Amino acid sequence: MEPKRTGKIINMSSVCGIHGAPVVPAYSAAKAGIMGFTKAVAQEVIGSGIVVNAPILGVDPSQVVETIAKTSMPLGRPQQPEDIGEAVAYFCKADNASGQALVIDGGQTMW
Question: Per-residue pLDDT for 56 more than 90?
Fold first, then answer.
């Protein structure tokens, strides 16, 4: 990427990296680490034409019962694969965003 002076690095993270999850502390720590790693690499390659970003995903729809989603997610549903794809597509196109995170979680972490 550096010789061509262009590139996109997209690291996938999770809301567990923001608020933690008591049952999976190692997973939560790893996802928080991805957010720090994204910012650090973005700073390291700044000016090289490479941008580094991270979508932060909410709960996988296969893990959520609809009634739970309706009570714990302000938008009333977990993110769908299409929601994630749109965020990734945005980061693939964006040339003026680097070191950024975009949370896609149905509004779950807004408070």
Answer: yes
Q: What's the CA angle centered on 61, arms 26 and 20, to 5 degrees? A: 25
Q: DSSP strand E in the chain: where?
A: 7-10, 13-14, 50-57, 100-104
| Diameter over CA atoms, the chain | 51
Select 7-104's CATH number: 3.40.50.150, 3.40.50.720, 3.40.50.970, 1.20.120.530: 3.40.50.720
Query: Average model confidence (pLDDT) for the chain?
Result: 90
Q: Higher model confidence: residue 59 or residue 48?
A: 48
Residues 6+ apart with CB under 8 A from 14: 27, 28, 31, 56, 57, 58
Domain spans of the chain, in order of start: 7-104
For the entire predicted model, the pTM comes to 0.86
Residues involved in catalysis: 27
